[in-house]
Amino acid sequence: MSFWQISPSSAASVSFSAPEKHPSYALRLLQISLLLVSLVLSTEAGANFDKGMRFYDQELYTHALNTFLKAAEKGDARAQLMAGRLYEDGRGGDYDPAQAHVWYQKAADQGLAEGQYLLGMQYLERGDLPRHQVDAIGWIRKAAEQGLTEAEFQLGLMYKQGAGTGTSFQKAEKWFYKAALKGHADAQYQLALLAEDGAGAKQNYRAALNWHTQAAKQGHAEAALALAYLHYYGLGTHIDMDQAAQWLQKAADSGILVAQYNLAVMYEGYPRLKPNLTASLKWYKSACEGGYSRACDGYRKMEKVHHERLEGALEGTLETAEY
């Protein structure tokens, strides 16, 4: 049998059609074209975002906003987030929370955790309708589930307060713990309060001491105050007046009036052999002038004692000089 199905002489009269295209061939070409266009736009948007960040770092907020908007309109989620922040802060233009909401929504819809969190916070701060709190916890939970630390803390707070959901100390503890492990001082403080108050569980002063200490070492004033009380009363540890005074001092230095008052009381009678009456007078005065009325009686009493001691010292000096 001959290999050729047609004879060479008749080959010239035979026409060959182009190979038949697969039905999805044109669609595939379109997809490739769209992908190339998307890559170009993405590269351009990325360049605009980087340029916007340079303006932002230089505090040229109007230029930053305009540049972010170019990238945001091309779908860059990071630029959408930054445009929202500038509108919400009123930097680079007018304060416009409605525009901020628009851009946060776009960033959140693309799955950007920071956009989800800030969108949720907008709903939470609005809070004039029950559905706003429901929307808030929904978006904040999405951000927390992506590991955004601030969202984890906020979600814990919402579960503790029952905002947008039923109160659940167990869930609050779960989310506070996640944020606390990452060094979030407010989460550490809240976790300590749950352990200290025994909300939803047994009191655990040792755990409270641990978390208050971690928060206080980061400069958390309320944690320092709580830590002073634990050391003063020996809760979760032994009684340690020096530690109590140290942490009260830090809380007082941060401007907490009740800490200033308690520090004044402590100095009035501690150490027992030689109380620090000058320090006591100082902190009574500071708390009184700050509006802590209970401190005013102590201030007047300590001021009288201070003057009497000064007068006594002066008389003694004069008697020595005469002698």
Question: What structural class do helix, strand and pairing data support?
Answer: mainly alpha
Which CATH architecture of the domain at 183-254 is right?
Alpha Horseshoe
Q: Quote the beta fraction.
A: under 5%
Helix content: over 70%
- End-to-end C-alpha gap: 149 Å
Number of separate helices: 15
What is the string of helix and strand elements?
A: HHHHHHHHHHHHHHH
CATH-defined fold name of the domain at 183-254? Serine Threonine Protein Phosphatase 5, Tetratricopeptide repeat
The CATH superfamily of the domain at 183-254 is Tetratricopeptide repeat domain
Note the topology.
Blueprint: H1 25-57, H2 61-73, H3 77-89, H4 97-109, H5 113-126, H6 130-145, H7 149-161, H8 169-181, H9 185-197, H10 205-216, H11 221-233, H12 241-253, H13 257-269, H14 277-289, H15 294-322
Could you describe the 3D structure shown?
With 323 residues, the protein is mainly α. Among the domains are: 183-254, Alpha Horseshoe (Serine Threonine Protein Phosphatase 5, Tetratricopeptide repeat); 255-323. It is built from 15 helices and no strands. Helix 9 (185-197) packs antiparallel against helix 10 (205-216). The longest helix is centred in the N-terminal third of the chain and has 33 residues, at 25-57. It is elongated, with a radius of gyration of 34 Å. The N and C termini lie far apart (149 Å). Residues 1-23 and 32-41 have low confidence and may be disordered.
